[in-house]
Structures are given as structure tokens and as C-alpha cells.
Amino acid sequence: MMDFASHYQAFNDLCDKAHQDGWINDEQLKSLQHVELQQAESLFAEQTHRPLLIGLFGGTGVGKSSLLNRLAGESIARTGVERPCSHEVTLYLHQDFQIKLLPDELPVDQTKIAYHNEDNRRLAAWLDMPDMDSTEPHNRELVEAWMPYLDWIIYVVSPERYHDDIGWRFLHERGHRHVWLFVMNHWDQGRPEQLEDFRRRLQQEGFAQPQLIPTSCGVAVEDDQFAQLEKTVNRAIQDHGLELLQQFGMTVRLNDLKRQYDKLTEMIGTDKTWEQAEKGWQQTVSSQLDAILKGIGPQIKHQTKIVGGSKTSLETLPQLFDDLAQTLWPARQQEQLKRLNNQLIDHLHSASLATSPIQQALQNLLTNSNAQVHESIITSLQLALSKPGGLLHRTIHGITGRLNWLLPLAAALWAIEHLVSTFHAGTQGKAQFLGLDFAVHSLLMIGLAWLIPWFLEKQLKPGPTSVIKSGLKQGIDNAGLQLNQAYMDLWQNSKEKRAQFLQEIALKHQILLEQDAAESIPGNSYSKPPAL
After folding, report:
1. What are the residue boundaries of the structural domains of the chain, listed by start?
2. Among 3.40.50.300, 3.10.180.10, 3.10.20.880, 3.90.1150.10, what is the CATH number of 44-267?
3. Which of 77, 373, 431, 451 has a CA-to-CA distance to 48 between 20 and 30 Å?
4. Which tops the pLDDT comparison, 171 or 302?
5. Which of 103, 71, 316, 116 is CA-nearest to residue 213?
């Protein structure tokens, strides 16, 4: 079983990784580290078990020190006029729990320790803490340093001061972290309706059934319930067991850590938020790239016209490819892509999603896009040059090229066949021999059979204009598809990294939940203090 410190270290490592990978910023990292690591067990590291730590807490003049002195049966805590200027904590515990060294985060110089040997008080240790509502800020620092170590808080008020605000604000912050008892001291000056008013106020603050004990450490009164204070603690220890009462503090810390896990997951973004952001990402990329590519259309027409008006041939055309690519995708287009990247980052900011994991990838994409687009344009121009013109154009041109030799050959074969057959018939006296007219007509027919296809082939031969037009258009279209895919791959990669990191968080979180469930005692709920 892992202890709390190990669980916290595992969580802290996750937070550091999330920060390094850019999922959370400095401020978010700092907020995730607000988990109390202090544990009362560290005060009694050399003992096999420890007492229940109970803090006396309240405002100036309510009689906390008087309560502790009355419990001890001697004056161990400062009272009276010394109290408002006191800067110390008094710890009162059984001598079996000797403390040799306090943790570094505790105010050693401002902590007074008093021991006793009363067996009936052995399992409870009492702390008298400075007044929270004094003008000395150091008092609050002392209280806040000790608070994480406490199991129980006894909140002490007086009839005239139970409505003070400072203590109540502190209750709001830590009310769920401890078991609470409430004492209205100076009861010789109080009235029953004040006790009931205090009870109602506690219920409004979330304490469903607060236990109130009226005491009087000065003037003796008939309904003083001071003895009930110690009996309540002893009865709780007897009924629930010391381990269970102490475990509540550990459970609170585990619950804090669970909430921090949830907080970390929320900072990275929920699935719904990422799904909505992905739709916005796709729409932004698609619309902006379309606008950029449409803006290049007039440039393609302009470059086609320039090449068509020059004396460039298909053989010399490759010399222009680099210049054409540079002209078609200048620095202005890179600026448009940069604006697209900024829009995408703003889109993530508006969805409260981390931008650092994607921002560097976007910068890399922008840096590589220029060479990628130029390569796409040049490759398409080379392909267009290897297969100039459209499919129909190339088919007709190929047919005319074949007819250029096929028709003259057919005409010549016909003329030869007719000449031979007529000559044979003439030798048999069946026909006249062919004359000069046949020779002239045959030559004219053969010439026309060659000239017409040759002329058509020459006219239909694709030129530089068609190569430039189709090559540039196809190159830009391919570049647009490649850029769009690069943006989609970038998002998918970030999505997969997020899923992997969330899986790692979920695994560590599950280990924490399983240990919390294994350590829970059946029939008891640690979401609230055990009933007293």
C-alpha cells in the first residue's frame, strides 16, 4: 500500500509532466500543488501509535487557555492580559508520546510542550492555539502551520463573541477537513437563546447536528458542562476507535488529492470540449485554406499568359519551374498561413484549452509549408510536362501522329497495287497502260494523305501554355490537400497525446481510489466526520 506522500509524489510528477508538455501553465501548476502534506503521524514517528490531536481554536478573550488549564488541572497555558500578545502554541499530551523533534514546517520556537501521566487522558493531545482575530498576523501563521496536523477542532466562543466574522471565514475554508466540537465558554454570562442562536448559525454553515457544550472556567454555574467535554472525546474514542477517528484526516487528504486529479483532468479539457474544438478547428482550416487557394487563381492565369506570350518551348520549360513556384507561393501566402495559425490558437484559447502542445507543432508546419508547396508545384509541372494537355487532347494528338504515316502509306500501297494490276491487264491486252496523269494524281493523293494529318498533329501538339496552366493548378490543389491533411494530422497527434496522458492520470487516480476503498471500514462514511 502506498502512503499519502507516495500518492502525492505520483500526482506531483504528473503535474510536472503536464507542465513540461504544455498542458497546464505556471499558474495552474501552482494551484494544483495546494494539497496538505502534513500528517500528525510525522509528530510521533518513533511511536507505534499516536494520540488524537485536538486543537482549541477561537477568538481573543473566549477562554481557550482557561479550558486547557482546567483540563490539565494546572496553569500550563498563558491567560489573562498576557494572551493577546502571546506568540506560542501550547501542546498538552501524555508522557508516553514524547516528541523529540518537530517537523521543520512547524514553529518550534513558538511551541510549548507540556506532558502529563493521567491514563484517562492518554489517547488525546490538546493544543491551545493563538487567537485568530488578534492584530498580530503572526498568530494566524502559527495557527495555519498547525492546522494540517489536527484531527479535531474545538471551536471556542463566548456569549458576546460567537458571531465574530474572522473565525467563521476560517470555518468556511476548513470546515470539512476536521471533526468539530463547539464550546460556548463564559457561560456564566450567557443565555439559553444565545446557545440556540449559535446552533442555528452552525447549521446554516453546514454542520447538520453540531454538538455544543457550555462551560464556565471562571465563575461556577449550575449548568456548566465542562466535564462533558472530556467525556465526549473519550466516548468517541471508545465507540469509534482511535484509528477511525484519526483516519478521517487521512481521508480528507485523499479526497483533496482526488479533487486535484479531477481539477487536472478538467484543465486539460473534457472530451466534449475537445470535440467542439475539433469541429471548429476543421472548419477554420478548411475555410481559410480555400480562401488562400482561391486567391492564387488569378496568379495562375497571369503566369500562363506570360509563358504563352514568350518563345518558351516544352524543351526549355523546366528552367522556369523554380521561378514559377516562387512566384505562385511568395512570402505573402506564408503570412496568410501565419494568420490561420493565430486564429487556431485563439480558437483554443476561447475554449480554455492548452495551446502549448499545438503551438510548436503549428510553427513547425508553417516553417515546412513553403518547401512543401514549392515541391508540390514543381512535381505537378513535371508531371504535366511528361503528359502535356488533357487526356482527350493527348488522344487526338496521338491519332493524328499515327495518321501522319499511316494515311500516306495506305495511299502509296493503293497506288502501287493499282499500278501493278493495270500493268498486268495491259500485258494481256485487256486494258491500257497507265500514263503520266495517274502518276501525278497518285503523288498528289499521297502528299495530301501525309500533309493533312501532319498539319493536324502540329496544330494539336500541346504547348507550354497548357503545361503551365494544368501544372500550376494541379500543384496548388495538391498543396492545399497536403496542407489540410497536415493540419488534421497535427490535431489528431495532439488528441492522441492527450488521450495517452489522460489514461496515465486515470491509472494513478484509480490506484488512489482503490487504496482509499481498501482502507475504509465497512459501515462508515468518510465523506463526513463520524457522528459523536
Report:
1. 44-267, 277-390+463-505, 394-461
2. 3.40.50.300
3. 77
4. 302
5. 71
First to last CA, the chain: 30
Spatial distance between the Cα atoms of 88 and 77, rounded to a whole number of angstroms: 9
H/E stretch holding 390 reads none
3-state secondary structure of 115: strand
Q: How far apart are CA 98 and CA 46, in angstroms?
A: 9
Helix and strand counts by DSSP (H, E) for the chain:
15, 7
Q: Which residues of 183-194 are buried (b: 16+ CB within 10 A; e: fewer)?
A: bbbbbbebeeeb
The whole-angstrom distance between residue 182's C-alpha and the CA centroid of its chain comes to: 43
User: What is the C-alpha separation between 85 and 348, in angstroms, rounded?
Assistant: 53
3-state SS, residue 85: helix
d(CA 33, CA 11): 9
Is 270 in a helix, a strand, or coil? coil
Cβ neighbours of 393 (radius 10 Å): 15
**What are the cell numbers at 177?**
477537513
User: Can you point out the beta strands (E) in 2-151?
Assistant: 52-58, 89-94, 111-116, 124-128
